[in-house]
# Entry
Amino acid sequence: MLKDILLQDYPNGEKFAIALSPMDDITTREYRTICKRYGADVLFTEFVSSDALIRDVEKSYQKISFSKEERPVGIQIFGSTESALVQAAQRVEELNPDFIDINWGCPMKKIAGKGAGSGILADIPKMLSITKAVVKSVKLPVSVKTRISYDDNSTPITDFAEALQDCGIQLLSIHGRTKQQMYRGNADWTLIGKVKENPRINIPIFGNGDINTVEKFMEYKKRYALDGILIGRHAVGNPYFFMHCKQAIMGKEITPITVKEKVSVCKEHLHTICDNMGESRAMVMMKKFYSRYFLAIQDFKPYKLELMEAKTIEEIDFILSEISSNLA
# Structure
């Protein structure tokens, strides 16, 4: 069973998982490896289009390549038709991840607007039909990541979580916002908690949304008694958050992260992307991370401007070394 692979042993015999949420152009193989080293129990790849996989688009296959060190790892796919998702799931199965995750949660217009991602929440019967077909088409475990509903007036997750389980999925991850909310407002975990409380639900339930402090992580873990918590935006440039959450669970003192360590990890991230994807790709992708790696570091702003304007890896390395020397 998938839960035996995903849920890790914690103190007092507890089974639990701290997971890295799938994020486009963020949860690359390079960054997943770093997060794993700092304590992420479960990793998800970036989400990839089922249509692109069927067409053998090389970039999409690059996004879902993984190493054995990342396990347990799930490959997330999205699409709006049964035939495409079934074929994509079968392609993914050949890569032998630990599980296949269906993205019924992305709210972005380019995805949800075409009936994929959380756009499917406007048609629950279709979502269930496609999910069941995907489960039947592969031998690997299948999971689903979704939202609490399409909008405030639509069918809530509490009304169809059991039906998803009946489709044969082995993990349900729920983001505490509606599709219409996008990423606005606060994530509402009450419905996630009610799904977990349902005595007929026997698959693991993971919660997601707005976990941005160790204190909140611990509070929600206790309040909702979920099987796992997904860390999304707060993990960007902050892989140490997984370690800190684990330390909190185990009652250990939280280890502060020095500027020198942040610089070292940032450099590692930059260079592994450069090695695997090329310098120009690394320069573009890392611009999403610099501010996050050095969030709340006093006097970082001038260096941020230099990092964003740098033209070569050598320039970036020099600036990062300056940060290590001058802001430590």
